[in-house]
Amino acid sequence: MTNKIVISIIILISFLAKNKSMVFAGFVILLLSFLNNDNLNNLPKNYFLNIGMTFLMIWMLSPLLDKENNLQLLNMKSYLNIEAIVSFIVGFFIVIIAAKGLNFLNNNQSVLTGVITGSIIGVTFFGGIPVGILTASGITFLIIKIIKH
Fold first, then answer.
1. Which residues contact residue 78 at a Cβ distance below 8 angstroms, ignoring those fewer than 6 apart?
2. How far apart are CA 124 and CA 17, in angstroms?
3. pTM above 0.70, yes or no
4. How many whole angstroms separate alpha carbon 113 and alpha carbon 133?
5. d(CA 57, CA 78)
6. Rounded to an integer, what distance in angstroms lies between the CA atom of residue 116 and that of residue 84?
7. CA atoms within 13 A on the CB side of 40
8. Which family does it belong to (predicted)?
9. Burial of 138: CB neighbours in 10 Å, binned 0-12, 13-18, 19+
10. Model pLDDT for residues 55-83, shown as the tens digit of each residue
11. Which conformational region is residue 36 in: left (phi greater than 0), alpha (psi within -120 to 50 degrees), or beta?
12. Over the Cα atoms of the chain, what is R_g?
């Protein structure tokens, strides 16, 4: 019952903050919580991350549909500037950090709770975008590893 109250509070806060994505996600989870079916309740854990990542990749690759961007992608000069080089290096390391974060998140309940709460607050009150959860977990993993070392 407590989880339904928490989900309802998240929906209410998200509605007041006009965060449609979080409201929708909250309603889906609230609906699943009433069904009490283990197979359905495991659906988000087992499939939604991959589905979400797939849609994120589609969004990321969508500029390739633009003919002007295709010409720019073939131009080597567009890769030889400070923004392109730094973004390449950061992108490379972030995906590795996010992979570490996923394992850390799945094996540590307190990290899961902290990252979810921080993400909900960031999205709801500060206009954040909830794509950094795995990266946040990865950065948490690195910081904890440094502290314990």
1. 72, 84
2. 6
3. no
4. 11
5. 21
6. 31
7. 10
8. Belongs to the UPF0756 family.
9. buried
10. 888 988 887 787 766 666 666 666 778 88
11. left
12. 19
